[in-house]
Amino acid sequence: MRILFLCGSLEPGCDGVGDYTRLLASELIKMGHQASGIALYDNEVKNIGEEVQERNDIGFPVLRIPVSYPIKKRFSTARHFIQMNKPDWVSFQYVPYSFHNKGIPYILFKNIEKLKTGSKWHIMFHELWIGTMKKCPVKHKIVGYLQRRLLEAIVKKVNPELITTTNRLYQCMLSEYKINSKVLPLFSNISVSQIDMTFYKKVFHDLSINYENLHEWKFIGIFGSLHLDSNLEEAIEEQLHQAEADNKQLAFIGVGKVNERGEKELMRLKEKFGSKVKFLHLGKQPAENVSNLLQLLDVGISCTPLQYITRSGVYAAMKLHDLKVVVPNVEINHKYQKDIIVYNEKINKRPKESWSAAYISDKFLNLLHYSHDSVTY
Fold it and tell me: Which range among 13-27, 197-211, 323-337 shows the weakest confidence by mean pLDDT?
């Protein structure tokens, strides 16, 4: 099968959807399929060009079109690339802000039909529209309304054979506007690595923990961004009580990039818990170190709200590493609360292997093969 992925950007390490697409494409190529990609609004290149992006010695050929490129030329160039590759499927990886800096991709809507060359189309909705909660500012609700109307118009214009999204909430929201979709959860982009005792010894040294006394400690932690509304303080407090009940001490370890607000929050938490909890933040680390950390932890804390949990690559990484995950941010859009809880309970019972890129890629292929069973709207 030949599959062409249509994205906003494909700069490695700088775009979450682009990284997701690259790993998905790599898995498909490993299975014997052909995959290529187009970055239609790439912020990281100044000149249009084709390149082969490597991941684990697998080449992914892509066309990257700068965001500054003229509209007419942008879509004619992309169309030519699609015609040259002759894909069986075009997989459109949709995020509104990937195609317009304010999230209102009107030009995309006006021109998307030009990219239809006879291939079947799939749309993956990574994001839908903003302003869905009652407490949202009026400005967000106005933008969200425009985003929703454009999304509906794009679906009608593209008329895809298959639509997927990452979580049950989005599936419910789409269904409300008569857009039927399948849930395709995100996979882990962190593979399980072999234990590296050198890395562990450095972590224990930085925490001032004696390796011989590990049985006296409980390790909890986060991977990735620290959201201020994730109730992290409450989660640490609860884990501290449980550790004390088991006659253990508590250590908190973070890994990944955090912004300035996140750093301030970590400092606040460190001051609040004082000597009761040891804190260490490792910053950005190679994938092997992240895997080793996830294997060390007793509990992982997800900063992603419960209703979005299956659109979180971090959550998928924790599940792949067979880690117990605590989700302190349980705010759910009450309109779909029952549906979300039932779906999440079901998916959380899946074996750890089902959170791998290989497993989800195989599920993606099955959805393409049996797309005739899924009327889109």
Answer: 323-337
Give the amino acid at 365. L
Does residue 56 or residue 141 have the better pLDDT? 141
Tokens encoding 22: 């690259």
Pairing of strands 2-7, 89-94: parallel
- Is residue 224 predicted with pLDDT exceeding 70? yes
Q: What is the mean pLDDT of residues 203-229?
A: 88
341's CB contacts (< 8 A; 6+ apart) are 332
HEC per residue, the chain: CEEEEEECCCCCCCCHHHHHHHHHHHHHHHCCCEEEEEEEEECCCCCCEEEEEEECCEEEEEEEEECCCCHHHHHHHHHHHHHHHCCCEEEEEECHHHCCCCCCCHHHHHHHHHHCCCCEEEEEECCCCCCCCCCCCHHHHHHHHHHHHHHHHHHHHHCCCEEEECCHHHHHHHHHCCCCCEECCCCCCCCCCCCCHHHHHHHHHHHCCCHHHHHHEEEEEEECCCCCCCCHHHHHHHHHHHHHHCCCEEEEEEECCCCHHHHHHHHHHHHHHHHHEEEEECCCCCHHHHHHHHHHCCEEECCCCHHHHHHCHHHHHHHHCCCEEECCCCCCCHHHHHHHHHHHHHHCCCCHHHHCHHHHHHHHHHHHHCHHHCCCC
Which of 160, 122, 116, 171 shows the shortest CA–CA distance to 5? 122
Query: Average pLDDT for residues 111-119, to the nearest whole number?
Result: 95
| C-alpha dist (Å) from residue 173 to 129, 146, 241, 250, 289 | 10, 15, 38, 40, 38
Q: Residue-wise over 156-168: b if at least 16 C-beta within 10 A, else e?
A: eebebbbbbbbbb
**Which percentage of the chain shows pLDDT scores above 90?**
73
Report the chain's mean pLDDT, rounded to a whole number. Answer: 91
Closest-CA residue to 125 (of 91, 153, 101, 156): 91
Asked if residue 374 has pLDDT above 70, the reply is: no
Over residues 163-174, the pLDDT tens digits come to 999 999 999 999
